[in-house]
Design brief:
By secondary structure, this protein is α/β, with parallel strands linked by helices. The protein has a domain of 249 residues: Alpha-Beta Barrel (TIM Barrel). It is 32% helix and 16% strand. The strands form 4 sheets. The protein has an 8-stranded parallel β-barrel with strand order 3-4-5-10-11-12-13-14, surrounded by 4 helices. β11, α7 and β12 form a beta-alpha-beta unit. α1 runs parallel beside α2 and α7 runs parallel beside α8. 51% of the residues are buried.
């Protein structure tokens, strides 16, 4: 049978109603790091996706970064995520929470005055936005080797809490310059011990986080997102193709739910490497429309397609893709922070039609 966006698929232990995924997108609307009713409404509106992947969620208080991002390390957060899970399930969707330890992409303002941690004491270039305005990225504290296992363990604890909250699984965020990506990189990771240097050493932290989550909730409920070649958050890699190859080889045969590649022109065929080596479902994202999605599914380059800003602005995106309806344009001024405006007030097709009557 020809693969299409609208056919069901099983990923690991979870069966999805279609092959459309909502990509993780930071929205900065969880004051106190606790998911709230507005967050549940937002995700529930988009529950007709096969898979909803939440915004980055810190697995530990020490991994906080950015303004008002949610966490998953205490009882109040579990209760909040339970509302999100129920709202998505009511639409037939499944929901994985993305676990994102920000590492050096943080600031003492988010850590009760503490210093962000990283593989090495190398600051990212640029500023970070705090509640009192933009501030220079601080020099992080290099993790001692003896501390690293405890940081890795937070992914397992958060995965356990995710299932307790009724979520269907977790995505380990190994992309976009956050802590696992910092270990993968050759400019943020200057270590000379078993956590740095060779590609085999640099992938060790990511693999540890994946293993911790898989041991906690089963590998079939764990996905992994990576972006070797991306320079987001001042990350560099002297050989991203080798990095992705090492990751895909290490994840092969583990029974994981999926491998998710961040879209980008990295100068090599990342999707081809993932498909050739990794033996589980592959998710691609990056500027997809319906036609390109169908083409890549038909060509076997992917099993699911993740949509970002188009899902942000179109709560009923699957129906719009199915019917070829016009899409709402996203309002970039409301992407980060704020209230319902630009968050839960984008109209569905049915609402547009009712307004026109």
């Amino acid at each position: 049978m020809t693969k299409t966006l609208f056919t069901p698929i099983r990923i690991g232990d979870v069966t999805l109603q279609n092959r459309i995924a909502m990509a993780p997108m930071t929205r900065n609307r969880s004051p106190g790091a606790v998911p709230n009713d507005l967050n549940a409404l937002y995700y529930g509106q988009r529950g007709t996706a096969g898979l909803v992947i939440t915004e980055g969620v810190t697995p530990d208080a020490g991994g906080r970064g950015y303004i008002d991002i949610p966490g998953l390390y205490d009882a109040a957060q579990v209760a909040g995520w339970r509302k999100v899970a129920g709202a998505v399930h009511a639409k037939g969707g499944k929901v994985f929470v993305q676990l994102m330890h920000t590492g050096r992409i943080s600031h003492p303002d988010f850590l009760d005055g503490g210093t962000p941690v990283a593989p090495s004491a190398v600051a990212a270039r640029g500023d970070i936005f705090t509640k009192t305005g933009p501030k220079p990225m601080p020099v992080p504290r290099a993790l001692d080797a003896s501390e690293i296992p405890a940081v890795i363990a937070t992914y397992g604890r958060a995965a356990t809490l995710a299932v307790e909250a009724g979520l269907d699984g977790v995505e380990i965020h190994g992309a976009n310059g956050y802590l696992p990506s910092q270990f993968l990189s050759t400019n943020a990771n200057l270590r000379t011990d078993e956590w740095g240097g060779s590609v085999e050493n640099r992938v060790r932290f990511l693999l540890g986080a994946v293993r911790a989550a898989a041991e906690a909730i089963g590998p079939g409920r764990v996905g992994v997102r990576v972006s070797p070649g991306s320079t987001f958050n001042d990350i560099a890699d002297t050989d991203p193709e080798a990095t992705l190859t090492a990751i895909a080889n290490a994840l092969r045969g583990q029974g994981l739910a999926y491998l998710h590649l961040v879209g980008g022109a990295y100068g090599y065929d990342a999707a081809g490497i993932a498909r050739r080596i990794f033996d589980g479902p592959v998710i691609l994202n990056g500027g997809y429309d319906a036609a390109r999605s169908e083409a890549d599914l038909a060509a076997g380059r992917a099993d699911l397609i993740a949509f970002g800003s188009s899902f942000l602005a179109n709560p009923d995106l699957p129906e719009r893709l199915r019917t070829g309806a016009a899409l709402n344009a996203p309002d970039a001024t409301t992407f980060y922070g704020g209230d319902a405006r630009g968050y839960t007030d984008y109209p569905t097709l049915a609402e547009v039609d009712a307004a026109a009557e």
